[in-house]
């Protein structure tokens, strides 16, 4: 069967300069460029955003702490060695999301994860680790903030009760 | 009505009617993500209309809080000054996207010029909304590209859409009533200049997207002339407001 579903892209948002990029969810898109645009509309309309990254979800190598406990020794020697930069993200709270914590050079996703655990588990005990090749991440440009993310800040958000619909309906009903 | 008021009404009505048409996709766009994106675009266009109606209210000595609603919900269809291109029904997704792309490209060109208007309140609004138009243009141009260069069906639908809409596009850059004096005063850009900048922007792009420009002349239309589609749109848009004219929303 042919999969007609568009691929899923994971979305990371940086809310202010200097803050880490945070996983906010995912979007479907035919390609990365549209993924970045879709992500803007789904995730950056209300909260503030100064930078957005997307990466195809199946490029993310993900392990939970349980999976890591039972893990066999990684057979990285069987994989073709492609030395590249990987981004590292982890989640600390069960209800939280992945926070981007840094990057490192490795020969494979499994090796990147080994190194990430070594490097980043200091005072924290992450529940889920993610590593993904930096080369596959598509990022918004700082010059795009003005047109993509800044206008959302000026939008007034009216909650449904602001519209006095119930009052108006009640009056209509009383009249009839 | 002064030339500047006429010009603002044209801008506002174009945005309002296109925004309303776009809103008809709400809940029906091809995929969830696009549904959200396109509803955002619809809201943006209606928001831009509100800014232009607001400025029009100030110039007319009317209350900017209530005048836009009066214009939108209690005006007869024949008093609308929008171009015909924006009142046409939504058609298929190809038509909707192509119309939005062609309009966004023109709006972007116009707003960039209006941002340098000698009339400061107009320049301020233009500078504010042109930022959003960059995003609209980007969003619709990636769609035109993918559909134009996509499957044979998507290409055919895009080509049909272009054939249908092309004669209507001329009205976007047709000079508005009394525009000359505004151009001379540096308040609005010359429409013929807008037209050449717009064409230089969209024609090569459409060709890159493998779409052939129809060999059809542009229609010379007045802003007071409308298709029968506008009346239906206005009736639906005004029905709730008119059912209870003094309701507070």
CATH architecture of chain B: Up-down Bundle
Principal-axes geometry of chain B comes out as: globular
User: CATH homologous superfamily name of chain B?
Assistant: Ferritin, core subunit, four-helix bundle
How many strands, which pairing sense, and closed or not: the largest β-sheet of chain B?
A: none
Structural class of chain B: mainly alpha
Q: Give the number of DSSP strands of chain A.
A: 8
Strand order of the largest sheet of chain A: 2-1-3-8
For the record, give the distance between the C-alpha atoms at the N and C termini of chain B, rounded to a whole number. 29 Å
- What's the tally of helices of chain B? 10
Question: How many helices of chain A in DSSP terms?
Answer: 5
> Which secondary-structure class do the elements of chain A indicate?
alpha+beta
Low-pLDDT stretches of chain A: none
In what range is the share of β-strand residues of chain A? 25-35%
Q: In words, what does this structure look like?
A:
The complex is a heterodimer of chains A (176) and B (249). By secondary structure, chain A is α+β, with helices and mostly antiparallel strands. Chain A has five helices and eight strands. A four-stranded antiparallel β-sheet of chain A has the order 2-1-3-8. In chain A, strand 5 and strand 6 form a beta hairpin. Chain B has 249 residues and is mostly helical. Chain B has a single domain (3-243), classed as Ferritin, CATH 1.20.1260.10. Chain B is built from ten helices and no strands. Chain B has helices spanning 3-23, 32-59, 67-73, 84-87, 93-114, 120-148, 152-169, 179-184, 191-208, 228-243. In chain B, helix 2 (32-59) runs antiparallel to helix 6 and helix 5 (93-114) runs antiparallel to helix 6 (120-148). Chain B is globular, with a radius of gyration of 18 Å. The two termini of chain B are 29 Å apart. Classes of the chains: A alpha+beta (176), B mainly alpha (249). At the A-B interface, helix 1, helix 4 and helix 5 of A face helix 2 and helix 6 of B.
């Amino acid at each position: 069967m042919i999969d007609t579903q568009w691929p899923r892209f994971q979305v990371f948002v940086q809310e202010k300069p200097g803050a880490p990029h945070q996983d906010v969810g995912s979007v479907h898109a035919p390609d990365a460029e549209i993924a970045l645009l879709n992500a803007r509309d789904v995730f950056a309309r209300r909260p503030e955003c100064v930078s957005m990254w997307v990466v195809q979800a199946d490029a993310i190598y993900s392990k939970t702490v349980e999976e890591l406990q039972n893990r066999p020794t990684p057979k990285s020697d069987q994989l073709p060695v492609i030395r590249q930069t990987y981004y590292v993200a982890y989640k600390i709270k069960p209800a939280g999301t992945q926070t981007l914590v840094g990057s490192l050079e490795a020969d494979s996703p499994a090796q990147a994860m080994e190194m990430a655990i070594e490097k980043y588990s200091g005072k924290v005990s992450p529940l889920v680790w993610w590593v993904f090749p930096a080369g596959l991440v598509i990022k918004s440009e700082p010059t795009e903030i003005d047109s993509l993310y800044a206008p959302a800040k000026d939008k007034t958000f009216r909650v449904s009760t602001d519209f006095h619909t119930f009052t108006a309906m009640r009056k209509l009903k009383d009249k009839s | 009505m002064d030339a500047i008021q006429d010009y603002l009404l044209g801008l506002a009505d174009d945005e309002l009617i296109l925004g309303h048409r776009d809103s008809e996709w709400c809940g029906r766009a091809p995929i969830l993500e696009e549904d959200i994106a396109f509803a955002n675009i619809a809201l943006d266009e209606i928001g831009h209309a509100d800014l232009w109606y607001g400025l029009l209210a100030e110039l007319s000595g009317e209350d900017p809080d209530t005048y836009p609603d009066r214009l939108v919900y209690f005006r007869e269809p024949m008093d609308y000054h929008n171009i015909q291109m924006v009142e046409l029904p939504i058609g298929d997704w190809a038509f909707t996207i192509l119309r939005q792309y062609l309009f966004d490209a023109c709006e972007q060109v116009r707003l960039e010029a209006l941002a340098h208007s000698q009339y400061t309140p107009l320049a301020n609004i233009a500078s504010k909304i042109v930022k959003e138009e960059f995003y609209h243009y980007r969003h619709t141009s990636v769609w035109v590209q993918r559909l134009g260069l996509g499957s044979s069906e998507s290409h055919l639908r895009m080509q049909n859409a272009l054939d249908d809409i092309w004669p209507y596009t001329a009205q976007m850059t047709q000079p508005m009533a009394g525009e000359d004096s505004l151009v001379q005063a540096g308040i609005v850009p010359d429409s013929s200049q807008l037209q050449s900048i717009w064409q230089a922007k969209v024609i090569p792009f459409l060709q890159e997207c493998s779409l052939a420009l129809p060999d059809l002349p542009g229609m010379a239309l007045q802003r007071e002339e409308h298709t029968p589609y506008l009346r239906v749109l206005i009736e639906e848009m005004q029905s709730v407001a008119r059912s209870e004219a003094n309701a507070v929303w």
